[in-house]
Every structure is written in C-alpha cells, then in structure tokens.
Amino acid sequence: MKWIFLSPHLDDAVFSCGALIWELVQAGNQVEVWTICAGDAPKNELSSFACSLHATWQVEGDVVQHRREEDTLACKELGALAKHFKIPDCIYRRSPGDGEWLYPGEEAIFGGLNPLEMPLIEKVSWQLSQALAKDEILVPPLGIGNHVDHELTRKAAHRLKRDLRFYADYPYVREPQNQSIIKVMAGSEEWREIQYKLSPSSLAAWKRASALYSSQIKLFWEGEDELRQELEEYAALMSGVKLWMKNQE
Questions:
Q1: Which fold has domain 2-244?
Q2: Domain extents for the chain?
Q3: For 22-60, what is each residue's pLDDT tens digit?
Q4: CA gap 9, 37 in Å, rounded
Q5: Which string of DSSP letters, residue by residue, matches 11-78?
Q6: pTM of this structure
Q7: Rounded to the nearest 5°, which phi and psi values hold at 26?
Q8: Which residues, in sequence order, are CB contacts of 133 under 8 Å at separation 6+?
C-alpha cells in the first residue's frame, strides 16, 4: 500500500506520526509526507511576528529552504519521501486586497482561518486531487490546537470526498484541554480508533527523525533531550500511535 501523510508545516507529520511512518515502511509500504505550507517566504519584507520566529529558529540564510532540507532528512530517516507544496506558511501570507499581514501574531494563527482565505481551501484541495491516486491511503491532521494551517490542511482533505485516516497534531495534543478532545472522540459513535503498537526500534527512529528539526525544537522544548523524553511519554499515553476514521453515517 501507499500512504500519504499530509503535514501542514515542515515538521508536523513526523512529530505526530514518525514512529508509525517507520513501522509502515518496515512492513513494506510506500510512505510519502506531503507538506502543504512549504512555500518560500517573501523576499523583501517580513512581519514583526515572522521576524521574531526566525530569531527563535536561529537559521542563517534562506530559512524556508533550511526547513525543507530538515524535513527531507527527517523523512529519509524514516524511509519516507518528502514532497513540498508551494503555499507559504501563514506567517508569510498577506491580504490580497490591502496587503496587510493576515496573521500578524500568535493570537491570529490560532484564531481560525481568515475568511479571505476560504478560496485557498479549494486551491489546496484541487492540488491534492491532481496529485493523488485512488488507492492511496490519505492521512491528514485532525486540526487539534486550532492552528490555521492545520485547519486549512484538514478542510482541503475533507473536500476530496474520500476515506481519510486522521492523526492527532503533536505537540498541540499534549495540552490537557486538547487531550480532552481525544477522550470525547473515544466515547463518540462518530469516530473509530485504529491502534498501532510501537516497537522500541520505531520509537528510536521517531526520536532520531524528530531531532533533525533543530530549528523547530526551540519553539516547544528546552532541547533534544526533552523532546525525546516527551515523545516517549506521549507514546506511552497513547499506548503507541492512534489514527481515527469517521464512521459512516
């Protein structure tokens, strides 16, 4: 089988599903990670918010190209192929009318997709429809955490009218309020859980691959050691890795 994991950014699918990706590859499956918001940053000007994130990432030169290279290496570590779409990250997107930044701060990026970007959902969905084969298993994020690019990715996948297997968005799902969402889903007739057990080898591969996103570790963890420890704790909490499918109505 061929599996396609949809990643809003250049790290999400591996942070969320790295061990499962490795297990699938070891079982003889083809796996690809398609990052939706992997396009170039503006050349001439960045918002103050984007500048602050770049400072945190501590990357010299072409920041987005550096992140694409991180993602390619991380996917390769798991035996998967990385594919990068050309939609820019939300922190780089402007209003098509007045040119104002659509997401000028942290509150905005977790505040719901800007109504001006509704056509972008259809654009991404069309791009996916052109790239996908009928028999490929498609795995988008649930959108836990409410990041606008995760919302974009989930809604674009939903418009394809095909069976989907969803993953929980890590590290956002580690927050207590987001864990409650998983608990509600577990007791809902709307959702069906698919449980995957992890081997020590897959957990080790997940840690290695995730550590290759050195620019992004600084956003969520004190360092690689904390990242590796939290991945282990998350795997124990989930009893491996879970995907979710919607039950037929």
A1: Rossmann fold (3.40.50)
A2: 2-244
A3: 999 999 999 999 999 999 999 889 999 999 999 999 998
A4: 5
A5: THHHHHHHHHHHHHHHTT-EEEEEESS-BPPPSS---HHHHHHHHHHT--S-HHHHHHHHHHHHHHHH
A6: 0.96
A7: -65, -30
A8: 2
